[in-house]
């Protein structure tokens, strides 16, 4: 029995759900999960569907062709169909902060993340020993302002060599180039250490402390060319008070960063996110 | 244009969603919201669907008949179909505590609750002036252990006279009789001032204080014959610490009770809850 | 037995706590609560102390004189000493939104707020009937851009006549003039319907919706001349997702506004807040 | 400059704070943090104080003697005085679950925990490789129902050999013997995977699922002879709904267990917890 996930979006029209569910019934699929959303402002329809295929004579390739011809063309759909057994390949970009890396690798080793991590890429060697501890290839791609392009070229080679599906910036602290962003559109996940859109840019904990907020946050989002402005996947917060110093903010923030990034990775890996305009639909 | 809500549950089978959505397409309905859930343990299928009917020649009565004959019989469905414009009639049962009453009447007056409140019933006269302040008929039905049956009879007369659809116990503090429960099955909402199943019964804040918990809670649930054991609709919590006395617990708890009860009322009034076994499906 | 609250701040120096607590012991006071905070950046010391005076021959007036001469002068303290029985007088400023007003008056009637509310002031007559329902004098002070000064003059007369100690803007929607702010420095509490500093200014829910945030918030703060930039007293948040419309944000936000404003009122009324620079110390 | 932490509890009496703070002033100490609590029911006074000693001629040993003679005897205090530089030694007890172990060792390696971890003790060999990955001695002490006493003897030898100050049960799944509990009174921290006192004992996620709760939790507490009844240090919760299976509860619970246990370890290691009766005072 094969388990598949289908993601669809298209202009909202009458009869889409009926057409899709009738199609699944026709191919003897059993729908185990269906969720949909209509974005009224833009009149866009989104759907996520999981089903089990019990008829062994139907291959995924045939199914795709059939779906494209029977349904997708008529409704002018953008769509993807995933075999749930196939784990996406994820590259980790890190720099010098180790707490998110420890958290992700701990979860990965404990079997919590439905991904493969074939490579960790960094512009520094500081975290190499952690990668080795978890037996994951570590590639240091150092660069300066002057040879950033070369560095990016090297990064892209590695991403291709390891057939990477999506990238996670685990406190990577470097700005991603437009070229790399375009190669991985809505497939690069960043963790920002503030409750965006409050305190974008550098040193958000210092700014939050200065402003005297009573709650701090962290935000995971897809990377776009506008710094810290990409579609938000997940956010969470923690309470602070006058007794907390900037260092306390930073320490509490580490827990937020860990958990908010881990949730975003899981959502993306399980194909539960869809992007439209500058927002996400998160089917969870 | 009429807006309707359909709630369905039945044994899980292939093709239900396809059949229902095809039916809606056939009657020129436009589905604006669909959500479903399969309870795997019991193999039960649940669905909530909102749609707009643009064809003015189709009446809700015809639609119901058509649905019953075309779909519901085949799949052996239990189902309800509501006209969204028709507000349910809600009776408030109160005793001496006023904070939930103030909150509900404030929200009602501010237009937040999609209900009519034709009557407030109490075993005491203490809160009569509040009801009068909000211009809602207040009926005092006092009773003792010895004439509880008579009291119940009077309550049921009032519920019939005012054509009550569901009952809210706003810190009513009396045990509802099995007879009344059976008349309003899954239609009596209680607010319990603890994080059930911790601290059932009386004086939960005192028990929580004694146990030294760091979090207190409140729970809204449908009333069943087993005290504090009915299907849970909504829960929420607040942090406490060693600095808080029992009185502080009670004061913090009042905010929890208000908000958790208000949320349950909204969910029920908008037909977003379904009960199965001793649990709820909450489509929100 | 008299119960008093003392608030102190001064330059941080050795021996302050010892001096103060020794003073209290000398006058036969029993300290029931003490909390202190040192703001390291600015080297400022803050203290809040509650105590019971068992010696009936000591009047509060004598105590104040004694404290000033024995302690406060030496340490160059700014300080206040309150009789806990004396409730502060609070004015409510409202406009057309009714949900915060209902919530505050409900809590007030239920005895939850340690304040007197001798007057409600509004620039419109819309909410007059609510004030009347709760038997609180309602004064409509309308004004336009052109006669704002006159309006303010009338407001200040009312504040004086009713001997108002602090002002609460319950979704008042008007900018307070610098003159009035200076008369009630750190004594005007506003509720802003966003998680400041995100989305300052008008229509924050619309901005939050557009940005695609996964969490919305509300912020209560003291009013200063910089709009939405005053010292934050309390914040809270609620989760939202792609299924929520702007109207859903607004409805969820109403609950946040109610609760965050009510908490700020309680903290201020119980003298648990102190302001320094643009921040608050909240002893809770 | 030495930094010290003092913990005190005794019968509540007038003048304690004055006496202690005057003592600190006398030895030229600079109080950087002071917090106190009076448990009214039992009339017990608790205090936590941090201070810097600038006079290099005063040793901690002298200070202790001086404090005992000048203050502690008079007030019949129980007290401890810690040098903040001295990290407590913590033993980890594990069994087969790896997620809490990964989390603790990741935090430890990242420098977040103010402890030394000289040994990991387990009744199984399953997690040995993780300990080795982090270079921490791993001792397998297997035992059966029949030779539990021997096993305990071996455990205690290890605890002595490594001079262990406190023990953390990271999902250890075995009941600790009364003898070991008495040796480490209020020094053994357990993580229970439910919101105690709801769902004590085994399989709490299954019970929570069956009950249909809308919120699950985790609880860290000191181990006493009554199973799952010891003083609670910290709790936290996560929302669940009808869409979540028992496996989803377990997966969400892992995050709760990690974070609630890590917070308890930090609080204990920084001497921020005090136990009285069956409760904790947590100065944070």
Verbal overview:
Four copies of one chain form a homotetramer. With 284 residues, chain A is of the alpha/beta class. Chain A folds into two domains: 2-83, ACT domain (Alpha-Beta Plaits, 2-Layer Sandwich), CATH 3.30.70.260; 89-282, 3-Layer(aba) Sandwich (Rossmann fold). Helix content of chain A is 34%, strand content 30%. Chain A has eight helices and 13 strands. The first copy, chain A, has helices spanning 16-26, 60-75, 99-109, 128-133, 148-161, 178-183, 204-211, 246-269; strands at residues 2-11, 29-39, 44-53, 78-83, 89-94, 116-122, 138-140, 166-169, 188-192, 215-222, 232-239, 273-276, 279-282. In chain A, the strands form three sheets. A seven-stranded mixed beta sheet of chain A has the order 7-6-5-8-9-10-11, with helices on both faces. The first copy, chain A, has a four-stranded antiparallel beta sheet with strand order 2-3-1-4, covered by helices on one side. Chain A has a two-stranded antiparallel ribbon with strand order 12-13. The mean pLDDT of chain A is 95. Chains in contact: A-B, A-C, A-D, B-C, B-D, C-D. The B-D interface holds B 37, 39-40, 195-199, 211-215, 217, 231-237, 241-243, 245, 277-282 and D 37, 39-40, 195-199, 211-215, 217, 231-237, 241-243, 245, 277-282.
């Amino acid at each position: 029995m094969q388990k598949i996930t289908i993601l669809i979006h298209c202009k909202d029209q009458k009869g889409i759900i009926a057409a899709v569910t009738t199609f699944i019934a026709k191919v003897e699929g059993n729908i185990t999960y269906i969720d949909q959303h209509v974005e009224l402002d833009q009149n866009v329809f989104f759907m996520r569907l999981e089903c089990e295929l019990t008829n062994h004579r139907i291959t995924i390739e045939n199914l795709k062709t059939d779906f494209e011809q029977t349904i997708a063309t008529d409704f002018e759909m953008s769509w993807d169909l995933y075999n749930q057994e196939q784990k996406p390949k994820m590259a980790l970009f890190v720099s010098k902060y180790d707490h998110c890396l420890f958290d992700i690798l701990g979860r990965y080793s404990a079997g919590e993340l439905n991904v493969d991590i074939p490579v960790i890429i960094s512009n520094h060697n500081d975290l190499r020993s952690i990668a080795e501890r978890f037996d994951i290839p570590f590639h240091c791609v150092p660069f300066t302002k002057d040879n950033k392009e070369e560095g990016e070229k090297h990064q892209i080679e590695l991403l291709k060599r390891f057939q990477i599906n999506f990238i996670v910036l685990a406190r990577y602290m470097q700005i991603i180039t437009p070229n790399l962003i375009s190669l991985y559109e809505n497939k690069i996940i960043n963790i920002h250490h503030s409750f965006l859109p409050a305190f974008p840019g550098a040193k958000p904990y210092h700014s939050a402390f200065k402003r005297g907020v009573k709650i701090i946050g962290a935000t995971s989002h897809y990377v776009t060319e506008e710094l810290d402005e990409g579609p938000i996947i997940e956010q969470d917060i923690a309470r602070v008070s006058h007794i907390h110093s900037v260092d306390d903010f930073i320490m509490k923030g580490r827990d937020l960063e860990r958990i908010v990034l881990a949730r975003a990775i899981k959502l993306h890996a399980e194909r539960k996110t869809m992007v439209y305009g500058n927002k996400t639909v998160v089917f969870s």
